[in-house]
Design brief:
The chain has a single domain, classed as MetI-like (MetI-like fold). About 80% of the residues lie in helices and about 0% in strands. Helix 1 runs antiparallel to helix 14, helix 5 runs parallel beside helix 14 and helix 12 crosses helix 13.
């Protein structure tokens, strides 16, 4: 138990150090973006003197390392500054959009994870047969297609041609079931296709690895059916790798959400971050980027935890 706790604390320490390095990279990249935030706020008609005065007021004329330390301190204190474009606290803007992004990600997870596990288990159950070949081919095709192409095709079919759904995803404050389905159908469908492909492949690989173990051969010799071999014997021993696969697959959801929210004009954190890039709103952009990086690291840490708890070899 002490070894497990030590490994988990070590992983947590590595994640915190990684997040610190990521903050430096985010700050550096955002400051390398072309354009002047003060000029963007005042417009092209502003005189250089007025622009310089605003830069001094915002602290943009300070050395880079001073601005980074000030920003990091405000980030750690939970007050990541004021939005330059909206003149509102960044924390308020993020708090307004974050629940919507979490709702989109949560709905996608609820839909994608069970279906992906089912597909992966069926493929492993019929390993080497025609059903496995068909599933593997379909999964590879889904993984190879990018999210923006799936989203564009879905909009053309279901919104433009058939008119069943709206191309813009926006739900009211207290949506009915019909409004909820109409809002999340296309974004969730698009995100789920890619996630299902990735999770199904890794679930199938984890189960096939277990099916090659000697205890499986003993179960087959005793007359166990393929379904019983997979579900009763192989699946319990593959829970750790499958949980690891699910966590790693969900980490890809962070990148997919950015594309999906922009295409469907979904009012979440990703679309807020894209708008901040357009407006050169550095405090808002940096806060959104750090939020995505933190979510990604949390999922990776969950994957490492599942791997450590399930695989005694990794504890050494």
């Amino acid at each position: 138990m002490n070894t497990i706790v030590t490994l988990l604390l070590r992983r947590l320490g590595i994640s915190l150090v990684t997040l610190l390095l990521v903050s430096a990279v985010v700050f550096l990249i955002t400051n390398l973006l072309p354009g002047d935030p003060a000029q963007e706020m005042l417009g092209q008609a502003a005189t250089p003197e007025v622009v310089e005065a605003l830069r001094e007021k915002l602290g943009l004329n300070q050395p880079a390392h001073i601005r980074y330390l000030n920003w990091l301190g405000s980030l750690l204190s939970g007050s990541p500054g004021v939005s330059l474009a909206n003149n509102m606290p960044v924390a308020e803007l993020v708090a307004d959009r974050l629940p919507r992004s979490l709702m989109l990600a949560g709905t996608t997870t609820v839909v994608a994870v069970p279906f992906a596990l089912f597909v992966g288990i069926v493929a492993a159950m019929y390993h080497g047969r025609r059903a496995d070949s068909i599933i593997s081919t379909a999964v590879m095709f889904v993984v190879a297609v990018p999210e923006f192409l799936v989203a564009t095709v879905a909009v053309l079919i279901f919104a433009v041609e058939l008119g069943w759904l709206s191309a813009v995803s926006y739900a009211p404050q207290d949506p009915t079931l019909g409004q909820f389905l109409a809002t999340y159908a296309l974004p969730v469908l698009t995100l789920s296709l890619v996630l299902v492909g990735q999770m199904a492949r890794m679930t199938r690989a984890a189960l096939i690895e277990q099916l090659q173990q000697p205890y499986i051969e003993m179960a087959v010799l005793k007359g166990a059916s393929p379904a019983r071999v997979v579900l009763r014997h192989a699946l319990p021993n593959a829970v750790g790798p499958i949980a690891n696969a699910v966590a790693l697959s969900l980490s890809y959801l962070m990148g997919g959400v950015v594309i999906i929210e922009v295409i469907f004009n979904y009012p979440g954190i990703a679309s807020l971050m894209v708008d901040s890039v357009t407006n050169r709103d550095f405090p808002l952009l940096q806060a959104c980027a750090m939020l995505f990086c933190t979510g990604y690291l949390i999922l990776v840490l969950m994957a490492d935890t599942a791997a450590i708890l399930s695989n005694p070899k990794l504890r050494k």
